[in-house]
Every structure is written in C-alpha cells, then in structure tokens.
Design a protein that fits this description.
By secondary structure, the chain is an alpha+beta fold. It is built from 20 helices and 36 strands. The chain has a 6-stranded mixed β-sheet, with helices on both faces. Strands 16-17-23-20-19-24 form a 6-stranded antiparallel barrel. The N terminus is likely disordered.
Amino acid sequence: MSDTDGKKPLGLGGGSRSGQVKQSFSHGRTKSVLVETKRKRVVVPKPGAAGASATTSSPSHLGDPAKRPAGISDAEMERRLAALRAAKLREVEDAKRREEEERQREEERQRRREELEAKEREERERVEALRQKAEDEERARKEAEEAARRAEEAKRAPARPAPAAAAPQPAATESRASAPASAKPGLPPSRKEREREVERDRATKKDDSRRSGKLTLNEALSGEGGRTRSLAAMKRKQEKARQKAMGFGSKPEKQVRDVQLPETIVVQELANRMAERAADVVKALMKMGMMVTMNQSIDADTAELVIEEFGHRAVRVSDADVEHVIDTVEDKAEDLQPRPPIITIMGHVDHGKTSLLDAIRKTSVVSGEAGGITQHIGAYQVTTERGAVLTFLDTPGHAAFTSMRARGAQVTDIVVLVVAADDAVMPQTIEAIKHAKAAKVPMIVAINKIDKHDADPNKVRTDLLQHEVIVEKMSGDVLDVEVSAKTGQGLDELLENIALQAELLDLRANPKRQAQGAVIEAKLDVGRGPVATVLVQHGTLKRGDIFVVGQQWGKVRALVNDKGERVDEAGPSVPVEVLGLNGTPEAGDVLNVVETEAQAREIADYREKAARDKRAAAGAATTLEQLMAKAKADLDVAELPVVVKADVQGSAEAIVQALEKVGNEEVRVRVLHYGVGAITETDITLAEASQAAVIGFNVRANASARQAANQKGVEIRYYSVIYDLMDDVKKAASGLLKAEVREHFIGYAAIKEVFKITGVGMVAGCLVTEGVARRSAGVRLLRDNVVIHEGTLKTLKRFKDEVKEVQSGQECGMAFERYEDIRPGDVIEIFEREEVQRKLA
C-alpha cells in the first residue's frame, strides 16, 4: 500500500489529523481511503501532588511528583511502588534459583562425564593389557623362531674359522635385538648378514606400523613399510578381543524344541513351531527333492524328517487331540457338594404328565401347548414346602417324540412314570419304561386321574408286572403313588418319595469347576438368535464363559432361567437358556466350557470336519451296483418331497422321524431339508426346484419368502399340532398311490355258430347263459377254461340291430376287436373294471 497525506486542516493543536491512504489490489486495482489520526493526550501532573521518597528504588517518573500521572493518590502510589519492589525481589530470587539449578545440572553432567571417562579408561587399559600380552607372545614366538634359524645356519657352516656363536641374547631393547647374534665383535658384518638385518628391520617396521594404526605422510610418500591395516580393521580387532575377553565371542547353544506334528501341516506353521526361518525350511525340503512353497501342506513323515534335520524332536499328535483341552479331570471328594435331583416325567400321551407338573409348580403350562399336548421338552425348578429344590423335565408323550424322551432319560436321575388310572399301560408307557431301564435310573410310578369314577389303580399295577415293573404294593422295589393332578391328592406323598429317592442316590457335584451340561432343546429365535436350553450337570456356567457345544461354539451373552429372569450364573442341576451361540446345536449335544475362543473355534471346526468326512465316507462306500439297485428301486417308488421348518430342534427331528415312517413299498415321503427357524426364501427356492411342499411347524414365512412362494407357486402349510401335520401328509402321500383296479363279472355267453360277414369279419352267434352282455364291457375268450384272448367287443347285435346290452337267455352276435380266432363251443366271459383309490394306513 502507499500512503499519501492530504493537506493539514486549520485548527487547535490537539485536534485530529486527516489523510488519504491508497490501497493497491491485484490486477492493477487501487482504492483511496480517507483516514484520521488523533494525537495522544498527555496529562501533566499537578505541582502539589505528593510523591514517593526519592530514596526508593522506584522509577524516577513515579517518585517525582512532577512526573507522576494526574489523579494518582499517595496511597495508590505507595501500593504501586510496593508491588514493583516485590516484583523485582521475585525476579532476583528466580534468577538465583535458576543459577542454582543450572549449577546442579552442570555438576551432575560433570559427574556422569567423569564416570564415563573412568569406564573408558578402564576399558582402554584392559584392552591395552590384552594387546600388550598378545604382542609379547608374538615377539617371544618370533625370537624363538629366529634362534632356531640361527642354530640351523651355524650347523650348516662349520668350516668357518670363527669362534663359537654367542648365545642369543634376549631382546630386551630394540638396539640389542637389531644386532646380529652371529657377528664377530669388532669385525664388520658380511653382505649376507647385512641383507638379513635390513629384511628384519623392514619386517619389524611393518609390524610396528600395523600395531600403531597410523600412517604418516612420509611413510605414504616413501612407500616403505608396504600395505598397512586400516583404522576400521584395528577397531574391529580391538572389539573382537574385548568380546572374547568378556566371554561373548562364543555362539549360543542351539535350543532343541519338541514340535507337535499333526497328520498334515503347512510349511510356514512348521517353521513357526521350530522357531526357524521359513526360507530355510523350504530350502531343506528342496534338498529332499520337494519343490514346495511356504503356504503348501506336507505330510507328517516328511515334516518329521525336516524336524530331525534342524535338530528338534517331533511329537506326533492327531487332529482329535484338540478336544483334550476339555476338562475331564475327576472331581475330588472334598470338592463335591449336594445338588438338586433331576426328575423326568414320562408316560403316554394325555395321561396327565404336564398337568401333574402344573399342580406341583402351581402354574399352567398345558394351556400354552398347541392341542393340549406337550411338543417340547420343558425344564423347570420347583422348591417344595420343606425347602428341597427339584429340577423337573417334562417330555412329550406322543409316539413321534421318542428321540426327545430318550434324551430326557439320558440326563435324568429319577424317572416319574405317569400312568392314567382309567387307561392303564399304553404303548408310549412301555417305551418310557424301556428308556428308564436303558438309562439305569430309579423309577417312581405316579398313578394319575385317581379321582375319576372308572379309575382302577390295581389294574395299572397288574399291567406293569408284564413289563417287569413291580411296585411296592405288589412286593416290589418300585415306589408307586396314587395322585390326582386335578384335586391335588397325593402330591405331597409324591414329592416325599422323590426326596427320599434323591437322598438314597446321594447326588453330588463340584460347582467350582468349568461347566458341563446337556442341551435339552435348541431353537432359532428371531430376536435373540440361536438359543439352547441347557441343563448344567457339572460346574457353574457363568455369563462371559466361552464354550463349545457339538459343532457350534460361542460366548455366554445371557442366561435366562425357567421363570424368564436373567441370571449371572447357573450351578449344577439348573436349567437355563443360553444366548450367544454362533449356530443352532443339536438337541442332546454336550456343552463344555473352554479357556479361549481359539480353542473353542478349533474344536468346533474339527467336529464339523469329522462329521463332513463321515458323510462323505458313507457316500463313497456305496458301490456302483448299490447305486444301480437304488436307482431302479426309486423308479418304482413314488416320492412326496417336503421341506420341514420347526421352531425348535427337537420338534424338527421328531417330525422328520415320523415322516420317514409314512409310506410303503410304493410311495414314501422324502424330506429334502429340515431346520430350525422361520421359512426363508432359500427354502422356497429349494422346494420349487424339487416340486416340494414347505411345512412350517410353529413358524411362519417371512415377507420375501411369501412373495417368492406366490410367484413360484410353492405351497406352504402351517401346523401347530403334530397330529394334523401327519394326517395331511398321509393324505397327500395316498394320492400318489396307484388306484386299485377291481373286476366285476357281469355275464357269460356260449358261442353256438361262427359266421363270416363281408366287411365285418368273423362273427360269433352266441347265447347269453348268465348275467348280461354289455357293449362297453371287457371280454375274455375261454377255450377249455383257458383264457386265450382278452379285449373289447367290436360289435354287439341283436338280430340286425346294434344294441348296448343283451339279457340272459337271449341270442346275439358278437365280434371281437382285432381278433377272429373264434370257434363253436368257446365261452365268452364279460366283466367290468372299477378303480378304487387306496389310502395309507
């Protein structure tokens, strides 16, 4: 910018001055601005104002009243002077403190410098001593060699008239060492001796120059002394000598490792386990003739050779060893504590199992089950009036839930067999008895519905004798109680018997170990993801534990008890819902808590791989002949393909098992896929490709699945009661059965004469001897009671007219369709066919 002042206006001296400022911008633009500048006002103090003493250390314009600013009182002036003196005093103290700190820092630096110099001096002295020792040894060696050489020369020249050679004198100084020992005193040395002396001096000088490590200008220009050692080489030599003296020169001893070796291993992983470079391992394999990279796998035998090549020890392990991390140690007797008994209620369908449990729990679960039957395994805890805690498992009684009842018996301590007093022993009652005996658990018989007028508990006891169940009233060892879930009769006695049986069993578990439990039920919840109902058997399951269950693993995100409340931990015999799985496990899988996620993931991957290999091996074991036979058999069998989705794993398995039993040698139900959770678009796509129906049990299809089903014409059936599902599937499978053809004989006719008519062929003159002859019926030609032709009639005439039927006792003319070998005396059998639709039992 440039500044251009305008003309000064007239006015008083204290007025403002104005001017113009010219501003310059880019691209040649300028702008003039008018500005004003005001003069600073100077206040002259009053002559009578009091000032501070002139002897103070304050500035002169403050102490002098004439120079004091106007309007400042003496007190204010004194306060300002005191503040000024205090500030100066602080400055002096700060300067002294800084000087003291700097002096201390300097002393500390000087002390450290002296310590470092002392250490360096000691190190130099030690290195110099080592160097001097090495030089003395070298000098002594050279002198010994020189003495030996002189003695050898003296032996070679015995004819010289010279006195005996003097003994070699020790080279204490350089002047004495340089004189030849064989020279005569007072005689000049010979030419050979002079040359030898010059050569020795040159070698000595060369050795000294190497030791000094210095190269002067004269030595460099003269070229004498030959090549000298560099300063870096001298430093390396000194450092090597120092390391050797301190014991660092020796190589560390190689560490031998135990390398765990599975059936196959990647080269990089093998190098990591040996703590060797992967490139060295690859090089060793190439020497063996294997051109591999570090990312390729090698077999255990080759890897063992490589391990031995590197000096390590190979430890063979199998893939199944990953499961060894699961805690399987035996619990100590002092760690065991009493645990609640696990009671499983079993029996026939509609014998009142869940109602009995309702009466004990004083809740209503039957109303929540579709159709009034239990279709899931329910796990509940009940506290009796005496304070005893009991864990109950309620299993379904329908025949389709056999596998679920079997799992219930595997984890139970006591089985309560519920038998209706008005119905006695039924098929599922017998199955429950077999499961209890297979599990080798004690049994308590609860004879229910004792309040009914037609109840006969003695008949129940008598029927149980046929299955080797002898109750106490029949002089046996099985407890039996007459109860009524409706009125509550006998419930206290039942609980007492359960508690008594539990005391006899002396049930104990260690709650302080890692948890282990059994999956009673599993399902896929829309809002919570995979959920498993787990009955803890050992240890305590806590929130945050990492676990593996079957082919799945996870971390406990939440625990929900049977009352729907969230808890932080669950001890032995406590049923809880576990959230936090990465997939839906199989009902009956065992849950084990492990230390790390890596271990859980490794075990789950191994189990999944083992299951996959097992399925593949089963498929590969099928021979070509078996495949051909199966394909031929499948051609003769009609199939009803279905896709099954259920709310829980147990229901899905039970439905699939029941569907596999539907059918006969002509038709069967083929389950393409079954799973847990809502019906998805993938299920619809699979069903469309196989022309199958989709069955949803207590689940529904999502929006995209419904839309896809409408577009592709896939039928979705929803069910909540297994009876209805099985009935509909049986009806659909019955539609695939071939209709049964039944024949009804309606008449017989005897051939009297045979005529040949032009344009018609051979015509039989017949007499209807029995029943009726119809034009639309089928006929068989019998000759000597042997069927020689079966077909249909071409014509049926009465006299010259074509008729539909001819009654018994009347004559008629018959001609067969495409058959003319008819003779007098043959018999015509007339019949009609009827198709009857078959049904599956």
